[in-house]
Specification:
The complex is a heterodimer of chains A (255) and B (207).
Chain A (H helix, E strand, L loop, with lengths): L4 H13 L14 H15 L3 H10 L11 H18 L2 H44 L4 H4 L1 H28 L3 H7 L1 H25 L6 H17 L5 H18 L2
Helix pairs in contact in A: 1-2, 1-7, 2-4, 4-5, 4-7, 5-7, 5-9, 8-9
Chain B lengths: L1 H16 L10 H11 L3 H14 L14 H19 L3 H42 L5 H28 L4 H4 L1 H5 L3 H22 L2
Classes of the chains: A mainly alpha (255), B mainly alpha (207).
Chain lengths: 255, 207
């Protein structure tokens, strides 16, 4: 579907409203109310009749859940499907509207959870951490860490939201091919490799840190290996308390 | 007055966690230094922010799961650690670790508050449906506006409550590392090792 000047303005409103997609997240319909809130400008623009508008609103109150950033692709697709239906009034086009949400919700959520929550977010945190440790003697320079993490994350985050709405609207379901298999997809793999190198650098730097005795120096890799063994089976909170107690004992008697 | 200003900031951070934006402002690595800066000790914010961010980095909000609130844990820890450092003159590492030890339970308690809010949202969503059927299409806009306000207030009030409770902790608690003669710099290194282990696990073994 082509984006005319009028549709561009409406889709920009959808983009800004998509930031509130999870405002009314609930256990029954999950993102249903948020989805209606986001797509509302499109519905108000294409349906002039109150009855049509009401039916369209109720359609989008059905269950919906996916990754909040990648949901913009589905918002774009659903908006295009609504525009098509408003012109044809065809039963097949009507089915497409809820079909696109039901079919794509799962795969898009899996992609977002793995790539955004599982790769981009930790990578941004890693960037901030690296800068924090590199400038650990100068508090002013340390600010570069959070700023770099914030910028890196939001360039990707806002980019996905913006492109998702317009690509979903113009390309329909084929917009997802670029998301799942394109250049962007490969970059997540590279990000992971760079992250492993950076984490290894941090670890080596940590193991080389000055220590008061050879026992303390040896304790760093021993702590790491022990934690690596239990990190999957013990919760992060429990591990934190264990480290504080065990580390405290070690710091008291072996220092 | 300073506490009210911090509470407003925490309210904004709470909104960013889920209901509005998700710009990463609510990530501990960003929120904690901001609170530290407002308290005049950004370094403490960096210490706590990095620890909370990395120790819980593998905890992600997949589907309907609600992880303990890392942002609130971090900001409560920074405010309490800042107050303890100011009152008792303890070092940054001791303040950060001891504040984290007592702030984590508040992050877990806030998780149950959030679950209640989500149950309440189910009722709001049902009301929106009823309003649309009755011919009030603007109900969803109003509901979203109130949801943001509700989250802001809940976060701010929870922060003030937690801060006031934790500042009641006795002096002996904050001086426990001095009393036990524990090298806090070394203890902090072990916490960092836990952080790196979680990071390593995230990138090497995450599928």
């Amino acid at each position: 579907m082509e984006v005319t000047e009028n549709y561009r303005k409406v889709l920009e409103k959808v983009f800004f409203r998509s930031f509130f997609l999870q405002a009314l997240w609930n256990f029954k319909g999950m993102q249903n109310a948020g989805f209606l809130f986001a797509i509302k400008p499109v519905l108000d623009f294409i349906y002039k009749n109150d009855e049509d508008k009401k039916n369209a609103y109720l359609r989008h109150m059905d269950f919906f859940n996916t990754h909040p950033y990648c949901a913009s692709y589905i918002l774009g697709c659903a908006a295009a499907a609504e525009v098509r239906y408003s012109k044809t009034r065809n039963a097949a086009d009507l089915r497409d509207i809820s079909g696109v949400k039901k079919i794509l919700g799962g795969p898009v959520a899996a992609f977002g959870d793995s790539k955004i929550w599982g790769t981009v977010r930790p990578f941004a945190a890693l960037l901030g951490t690296i800068i924090f440790f590199l400038f650990s003697k100068n508090v002013t320079f340390m600010w570069a860490g959070p700023v770099a993490a914030f910028l890196f994350y939001n360039i990707i985050h806002i980019g996905i939201r913006w492109r998702g709405i317009f690509r979903g609207f113009t390309q329909g379901e084929s917009a997802f091919e670029g998301l799942f298999t394109g250049r962007g997809h490969k970059s997540f793999g590279y990000m992971r490799i760079i992250a492993i190198v950076l984490v290894s650098f941090l670890l080596v730097k940590g193991f080389m840190a000055e220590a008061s005795s050879i026992w303390v120096k040896l304790s760093y890799p021993v702590f790491f290996v022990t934690l690596a063994v239990f990190v999957r089976s013990v919760s992060a909170t429990a591990l934190f308390y264990i480290v504080v107690v065990a580390g405290g004992i070690f710091a008291r008697y072996c220092h | 007055m300073n506490l009210v200003f911090l509470a407003v900031l925490v309210g904004i951070i709470s909104c960013d966690t889920l209901v509005a934006g998700q710009f990463m402002l609510a990530r501990p690595i960003i929120a904690a230094p901001l609170i530290g800066l407002c308290m005049g000790n950004p370094y403490l914010g960096f210490l706590i922010g990095v620890c909370v961010e990395l120790v819980w980095i593998r905890v992600i909000p997949v589907g309907s799961s609600i992880p303990p609130d890392g942002a609130l844990t971090a900001v409560i820890a920074v405010s309490v650690a800042g107050a303890a450092k100011y009152n008792y003159g303890i070092d940054d590492f001791a303040a950060a670790i001891l504040a984290l030890v007592v702030s984590i339970p508040f992050g877990i308690i806030f998780k149950s508050v959030e679950i209640r809010m989500r149950f309440y949202n189910s009722r709001v969503a049902a009301d929106i449906k009823t309003s649309v059927i009755r011919g009030f299409p603007g109900a969803v806009d109003k509901a979203v506006f109130f949801a943001v306000g509700r989250t802001f207030l809940t976060g701010a009030v929870f922060f003030i409550t937690a801060h006031l409770i934790l500042t009641l902790l006795p002096r002996q608690y904050w001086e426990i590392f001095d009393f036990l003669k524990i090298d806090t710099r070394l203890l902090m290194r072990y916490v960092y090792i836990l952080c790196f282990t979680q990071l390593f696990e995230t990138f090497v073994r995450w599928k």
